[in-house]
Amino acid sequence: MPTAEIKVARLPIALVIPNPDQPRKTFKPESIAEMAASILQDGVRQPIEVVPLSAEKVAYCQSRFGQCLEQDLVGDPFFEKAIAFLNAWDGQAQVHMIVFGERRWRGSIVAEQSDIPALISSGMTEVQVATVALLENMQREEVGFLEEARAIADWMQKIGLDPKIQKDRQAAAKRLGKSGTYVDWRLDTLFLEPEIQICADKGELSANEICHLAWCKTSEMQRKLFALIRSGKCKSHVQLEAATAALNSEADKQLVAQMSLFDAGTVDKSQAIALLKEIESVGQKLAKISANGESVQLAFAQTDAPDLAMMRDLLNGIEKTARSIAKNQVTFREQAMFAANL
Predict the structure, then answer these.
(1) Residues of the domain holding 191
(2) 166-176 and 145-158 helices cross at what angle (nearest 10)?
(3) Which of 27, 82, 170, 325 is most buried, judging by how many CB atoms fall within 10 Å of its CB?
(4) Are residues 93 and 34 part of one domain?
(5) Helix, strand, coil: what percent of the chain each, to 5?
(6) Helix (H, G, I), strand (E, B) or coil at 260
(7) CA pair distance 238, 335, nearest whole angstrom
């Protein structure tokens, strides 16, 4: 792999353009304003990193800027400024593209700086540029979950890996220094329904909610869970776990149906309490058998098949509930209510 040569210089702001394939697409105006205020007071304390562009690469950036302004960055004044510069470029002055540090570049423009300190990396390949840009942005807390997912997928394709193939995902995780789970969680979100992706991009969904939506096995299940989240009925991690499990598992859905919690479009406390009473009834029956000294085996042998099936399913539910309470300190009533509402 080629080794990049690096030198430090102050470059005219006008000759520095953003990377149109930059993983990070969203910059909050207040964040740029804060950066500009900091630059006015203390200057740019950390140089940005850039690469010099060939005429061919400049033409590519010019084309991509147009696409970005039509798709991801409609009306972005910084990209509009960059494309205006490239349209007027005489082909003589050396143009540099940002590898990382775009927020500092944007802040410098707002602060009306004429130049910016930069590390100029010569000899970097496109794959190296993409990798450095991705790794740098993955360290930023403000980068959106889906934004990062798309960036990882694009980067994988650039280096010849398929985001849909598990072994390629593992290879990508190793190269990025991340766990396989980290990469899986993000790439899985790319299969969300379009309307859900839009909400995620707007920051209306938490990373936890996005992950659970991505774990739904069908589009219909995604929409049902999404409706629960938007209604405010699925807020905590435990609630999301319960709802997702109920949606994805036919066994869970059948169990809830047997508990008579699926017959209504909505669920209230009275239904959950009724379920608890059913469980208590089974417990009382078992306690009575034990107190009378009867053989449990004989008692079950004399029980009708439907009652045995119901007791079996309820006991399975109790076991799952006990484990959940021990692990998450939540009540079964809460989980039952949410599972039933699916």
Answers:
(1) 144-232
(2) 100
(3) 82
(4) yes
(5) 65, 10, 30
(6) coil
(7) 8
- Six-digit token pair at 235? 């807020």
Identify the CA nearest to 311 among candidates 261, 255, 263. 255
Tokens of 288: 């009575």
Q: What is the pLDDT, as a whole number, of residue 247?
A: 77
pTM strictly above 0.85: no
Residues 276 and 227 in one domain: no
- Token pair belonging to 275: 């379920």
CA distance 234 to 225: 8
Which of the four pLDDT bands, split at 50, 70 and 90, describes residue 263? very low
CATH number, domain at 19? 3.90.1530.10
CB contact at 8 A, 158 and 130: yes
Let me know whether 116 and 164 are in one domain.
Answer: no
Tell whether 172 is covered by a domain. Answer: yes
Q: What is the mean pLDDT of the chain?
A: 76
User: Exposed, middle or buried by CB within 10 Å (0-12, 13-18, 19+), for 205?
Assistant: buried
Work out whether strand 48-52 and strand 115-122 pair parallel, antiparallel, or are unpaired: parallel
Considering the chain, what percentage of its residues have pLDDT values greater than 70?
68
Using one digit for the tens of pLDDT, what is the confidence trace for 283-308?
666 666 555 555 555 665 666 666 66
Q: Are 316 and 255 in contact (CB under 8 A)?
A: yes
Residues 217 and 260 in one domain: no
